[in-house]
Amino acid sequence: MKTTTLALALLLGSVATGCVTINIYFPAAAAEKAADKIIDEVWQLKQGTKPQANQPQGETK
């Protein structure tokens, strides 16, 4: 009986330590800027124009 309790405790302990959540937070402004860039590229492709590859990163439309 004691062996079963010990085995159960070890199993529960290993399951509890195996469940780890990692949260990664992105700055909202950077995520919004990246989303806008992707949307602009998709619209340009739908209109038949080529996306601008040489546009500076800090420049907004």
Overview of the structural elements:
With 61 residues, the chain is mostly helical. It has one domain. The chain is 61% helix and 0% strand. The chain contains 2 helices and no strands. The chain has helices at residues 2-18, 28-47. The longest helix is centred in the middle third of the chain and has 20 residues, at 28-47. The protein is rod-shaped. The relative contact order is 0.07.
Largest sheet: none
The helix-and-strand class reads mainly alpha
Helix-strand sequence? HH
Q: Assembly type of the shown chains?
A: single chain
Instruction: Please report the number of helical segments.
Output: 2
Arithmetic mean of pLDDT: 78
How many domains, in number, for the residues? 1
Shape: rod-shaped
**What's the N-to-C terminus distance?**
71 Å
Helix content: 55-70%
Number of strands: 0
| Backbone CA Rg | 25 Å
Unreliable spans are: none
Short synopsis of the structure:
The protein is mainly α. The chain contains 2 helices and no strands.
Q: In terms of topology, how is this protein built?
A:
Blueprint: H1 2-18, H2 28-47
Characteristic key phrases:
single chain, 61 residues, mainly alpha, 61% helix
